[in-house]
Design brief:
By secondary structure, the protein is α/β, with parallel strands linked by helices. The chain has three domains: 3-252, Purple Acid Phosphatase, chain A, domain 2 (4-Layer Sandwich); 258-330, no CATH class; 344-381. Helix content is 26%, strand content 26%. The protein is built from eight helices and 16 strands. It has helices at 24-45, 64-79, 105-109, 271-282, 299-302, 307-314, 344-358, 362-381, and strands at 3-8, 49-53, 83-87, 114-115, 123-129, 132-138, 163-169, 196-200, 206-210, 213-217, 234-241, 244-252, 258-264, 284-297, 318-324, 328-330. A six-stranded mixed sheet has the order 4-3-2-1-11-12. The chain starts with a strand and ends with a helix.
């Protein structure tokens, strides 16, 4: 006998969306719409299990409308006999006592879902599905781990079912899309005896077989930033038996299109007029357009460019536009060496990395990591990048 499973992750419901200005609320709705697609598919096709591999929410304190919508959705799944399992990820795991518990706790306290809240050791639950013993194990993200730490090193999990599934929210070495300054699971640390490792955190859908175990990232359901503009978004439908995954289908979600274009600036004439003409050729009220300005212009020529005029011109022609002037060079009589390009978050991380490397004990490093996480969260809430 086999079982059917829906795997989704990194839904990032209720993002800050500060960069979208007046379209902020509509952008939040994009993430809800994509998650609604997963729920609607599950209600129609009735899988045995519905797995959320972390980052259901984009923040530790999502607004009440998103919380209530998720409760309604999990209740609808429960009423159809679909078992829901959740773990928390980077964004919806509390990083300090001040932040309290994960917003997922309320679903775990209801009868509609099972929430594996522990982040230092896996939890598990065994069910009888179609005459098969099915064990689902999972571990939530641990925000106090230092960079380079393997969160599963030395962790033992003993699956007891005929079919066994392990859920985690970490990058696994060998997959693409993770940063340098985060914990990393080594393939040798993945628990044995499972037919499926269901993973979250990496936003690109990808899969591999590790020591004979099917390991799958469903990817995010909506595009979070421009690094994902060429990625398909969605979730995964799986059929498993004792041998592993026997059928798999990636189902696309209606993610909003993000598109980047480059404009080489003219040496003469109005830059604003040039941009308005080029943007008119691309207008599409459904896409988020980032335009990069490329080229070298003189100071006098630069005066013909006003970002506010272009943003105002683009209203109604695009969902929103995002100007990018990093490739713009200003001609001057005397060459001036540019300062290194950086962002508030990069500078914050650089400073804390230095302090963590100089810390004398594990307790000092733990406090610094917690302070970094809190500072990152505050900056991101204010729209820093």
């Amino acid at each position: 006998m086999s079982i059917q499973v829906i795997l989704t992750s990194d839904n990032h419901l209720d993002p800050a969306a500060v960069m979208y200005g007046a379209r902020r609320y509509q952008r939040k709705q994009d993430f809800l719409r994509c998650f609604d697609t997963v729920i609607e598919y599950a209600l129609k096709n009735k899988p045995d299990l519905f797995l959320v591999a972390g980052d259901l929410f984009d923040q530790i304190q999502p607004r009440n409308p998103a919380r209530a919508r998720a409760m309604q959705q999990f209740r609808a799944l429960h009423d159809k006999g679909i078992r829901v399992f959740l773990i928390s990820g980077h964004h919806d795991t509390p990083k300090s006592m001040e932040q309290g518990s994960s917003p997922l706790s309320v679903y775990g306290n209801s009868e509609y879902a099972t929430f594996f809240q522990d982040n230092d050791k896996p939890s598990q639950k065994t069910l009888n599905i179609n005459g098969e013993e099915v064990t689902v194990a999972g571990v939530s993200y641990n925000p106090l781990l230092t960079w380079g730490t393997d969160p599963l090193r030395g962790v033992k999990v003993q699956p007891s079912g005929d079919i066994n599934i392990f859920i985690l929210h970490y990058p696994i070495d060998g997959f693409t899309g993770y940063g340098k300054m985060e914990s990393l699971v080594r393939p040798s640390s993945l628990p044995t005896g499972f037919q499926l490792v269901a993973a979250g955190h990496l936003h690109k859908h990808q899969k591999s077989k590790i020591a004979g175990i099917d390991t799958i990232y469903s990817g995010s359901t909506e595009r979070v930033n421009f690094s994902e503009e060429n990625e398909e978004k969605g979730f995964v439908w799986l059929e498993l038996d004792k041998t592993g995954v026997i059928n798999e289908e990636f189902i696309k979600s209606p993610a909003r299109e993000l598109k980047t274009v480059e404009f080489k600036l003219p040496k003469e004439g109005s830059i604003d007029s040039f941009l308005k003409k080029e943007l008119s050729k691309l207008q599409n009220p459904e896409i988020v357009l980032r335009f990069k300005l490329i080229g070298s212009v003189g100071v006098k020529q630069l005066l013909t460019y006003k970002r506010s005029n272009i943003i105002s011109f683009a209203q109604g022609k695009f969902f929103t536009i995002v100007p990018n002037e990093e490739g713009l060079e200003i001609e001057a009589g005397k060459l001036v060496s540019p300062l290194p390009r950086t962002t508030p978050l990069e500078e914050l991380r650089r400073y804390f990395k230095q302090q963590i490397e100089k810390a004398e004990g594990e307790e000092d490093r733990r406090v610094l990591v917690e302070a970094l996480n809190l500072c990152e969260k505050r900056l991101q809430e204010e729209g820093a990048w």
